Amino acid sequence: MMRSGLLTLAVSALVLAIGTTHAAPLDSYRMLSLVNDARQSAGEQPVKLTLVLNEDAYHHSNYQASLGAVTHDDSHGSGSERLSEEGVHLGYWSENVAYTHGDEDEAFRTWMNSPGHRKNILSSAATHMGISEVKGYWTQVFAQL
Known about the structure:
The protein is α+β, with helices and mostly antiparallel strands.
């Protein structure tokens, strides 16, 4: 009985720890796959998913959701400014934002159909990516770390 109680406590603690990160949606690897497939087709190197960019993307998606509007502006500065304040050194930075209640495929299609967003996705300068969605507000961050 004591052992099952400890197991329940350990599992509960793990679920709480995972559930409170909010850094990336559950299928962030689906978006990574879509991005890297497009990059490969364009002759570009794949990007890697990274926690610091996921956290920045989450911050911005949450900010957009709190406003109820899609925006690149943020009361805490641009993503590159926020990351610099946290000590992250960037060689390149870009951001895609969108509003859709669709899945990763729909958000990706929306961005790929926009020349500016497509350019960010396919940029040869990007080495890393972060992604998040909060209440339909999507943020995709690319950087060279």
